[in-house]
Amino acid sequence: MKTTIEIRPVAQADRKIWAALFSDYMAFYGCTPSDAVLETTWRWILDPAGPMECLVAVKGGQVVGFAQYRAVPETLTGAWFGQLDDLFVAPTARRQGVADALLARLDNIAHERGWFKLVWITAQDNATARKLYDRIGKASNWVVYERPQGD
């Protein structure tokens, strides 16, 4: 019997499991999870006027994944698009349609809000994620650069 996957906005009651999943996500990308980062990101997500939103995937009564996203204005078109910043599924729930369900709901949100595209980035060596992303989207021809500030 196949368990259904519910996709819904994150709620205050999800704080503990979200923090655990987000910490695992951060560690995967070589970042050290900290209470300060977790608290800041959580505030951004929960604030209705904040810069980002979060969907969670619930399977068998447990939160097993999340997608954190935001709206971005594009100056070249004068239109808005959606930016998926973070997508993570607990290892025990992978290859069960969780990421697909999160992305499908995000597609619906993009349509509802009139965003003309969704964009996201992943590490070049993240073969697992890239297999999914290559199936549902297409790699852009843009090259991303970073210039760290501070220190």
From TrEMBL:
Entry keyword annotation includes Transferase: yes
Keywords recorded for this protein, A-Z: Acyltransferase, Transferase
CDD domains: NAT_SF
Keyword Acyltransferase attributed: yes
Pfam families hit by this protein: Acetyltransf_1 (PF00583)
UniProt domain N-acetyltransferase: residue ranges: 5-151
Entry-linked InterPro entries: Acyl_CoA_acyltransferase, Bact_Acetyltransf, GNAT_dom
GO terms of molecular function: acyltransferase activity, transferring groups other than amino-acyl groups
PANTHER family associated with the record: AMINOALKYLPHOSPHONATE N-ACETYLTRANSFERASE-RELATED-RELATED (PTHR43877)
Protein name: N-acetyltransferase domain-containing protein
Organism: Thalassospira profundimaris
